Amino acid sequence: MKHYLIPLSVAVSLLASCSNFIGGYSARSHEHLTSLKAHHIKLIDDNTKSASEPKRNFSTTKFSESVDAGELKFREASEYSKSLNDRLRTENIQLLHEIYDEDTSNITKKSRLLTLPEADTLKAPTASAYDIAIKGEQVRKSE
Helices in the chain by DSSP H: which ranges? Predict the structure, then answer.
């Protein structure tokens, strides 16, 4: 389990218990989180060896373009959460961005396509972190 799941779990717990001190549900924030998750997981999938394309190689250019697209998505989500003056929401985006940076850095260092086990090792905790953040946003609906 990666080290960032604990702070994210704590943030969701705080969100549930302190609903009077945070902003309400935002469909736009929910959309940001689901879009970021889809992009992040697709980035890993796109840079994983597949049996259907055994001769495909790692493309630094394509990878960099995809990372840049993800950076823009994170910037949009971060700026939106900051505009709501919601510290918890902003911190959740920052934690997810740190995970993204860690994963992209690991892929960059390898400079090759990931094996399926390597991709699964990245995807499982990454998807869990996004799921926790998305659940945290959904908890705000019940205010």
Answer: 5-17, 27-46, 60-83, 87-110, 116-139
